[in-house]
Design a protein that fits this description.
Elements lengths: L2 E8 L2 H10 L6 E8 L17 E7 L10 H16 L7 E4 L3 E4 L2 E11 L2 E8 L24 H22 L1 H11 L6 E6 L2 E10 L5 E5 L2 E5 L3 E4 L1
Parallel strand pairs: 1-2
Antiparallel strand pairs: 2-3, 3-7, 4-5, 5-6, 6-7, 8-9, 8-12, 9-10, 10-11
Helix pairs in contact: 2-3, 2-4, 3-4
Length: 234
């Protein structure tokens, strides 16, 4: 399904994928770089990108209504979690935090950023294979630091295989199975969460996901549906 284009150094794999999308690149084009000079994450954060970690952006052309595209965040998170967990010791479990943080022992090991351009969706994925660069406000770890063994190319191939599998299932069966699998890797229902929303902080208990992937937060004022924000487990 995937056609990988490899670069030793690039500004941003997602910027290059965006350029390729504008030029008509096909569904399944993958931009992989050994190092990024201008990697980025959610909320315009910098994604520090030294050699030794995995940086890829996947270009998809999907015939789906725009309302369903956010589901891809959860599909991708599952693929990343499966790929990372397969490279770690058997007793180490990968967890997910809404909307798409991938964690090991509470530390971030991978990040995902979805963007849309010219009729295409671009999924940017960064996985800490050998290094765990400091990221403001977050603990970080890597596959190596968590006791795993992996090469960057090996992690990439495993990730793309898992992504293809999860995409196929999602397109055939819809969001329901994805939602169920994501919740199985998330903090438990009832966990105390703190959510930063447009300059304010809301606290409550995790109430799961609705059928669109929005976070459900049980607060003193009642159930709140969250579609964008930063989540911390209290």
């Amino acid at each position: 399904m995937f056609n990988v284009l490899h670069y030793e150094m690039i500004g941003s794999t997602s910027d290059e994928a965006r350029r390729l999308a504008t030029a008509g690149a096909a569904h399944g084009t993958v931009v992989h770089a050994d190092e990024q000079r201008a990697g980025r994450g959610r909320l315009a954060r910098t994604w520090v990108s030294p050699p030794g970690n995995l940086y890829v952006s996947v270009l998809l052309r999907l015939d789906l209504p725009p309302a369903r595209l956010p589901e891809l965040s959860f599909v991708t998170a599952l693929a990343v979690a499966d790929a990372v967990e397969a490279l770690l010791p058997r007793h180490v479990r990968v967890m997910l935090k809404w909307p798409n943080d991938v964690l090991v022992w509470g530390a971030k090991i991978a990040g995902i950023l979805l963007e849309q351009t010219d009729g295409a969706t671009i999924i940017g994925i960064g996985v800490n294979v050998l290094h765990a660069p400091a990221t403001g406000g977050y603990k970080t770890t890597s596959i190596a630091a968590s006791g795993g063994i992996a090469s960057v190319d090996g992690a990439r191939d495993r990730l793309l295989a898992r992504l293809e599998r999860h995409l196929t299932t999602w397109q055939a069966d819809g969001f329901g199975p994805v939602r169920t699998a994501w919740l199985a890797r998330a903090h438990p229902i009832g966990a105390a969460l703190r959510v930063s929303l447009q300059g304010q902080t809301v606290e409550g208990a995790f109430g799961g996901l609705d059928d669109t992937g929005a976070l459900l937060l049980e607060t003193k004022a009642g159930r709140q549906r969250v579609v964008a924000g930063d989540v911390a487990v209290r």
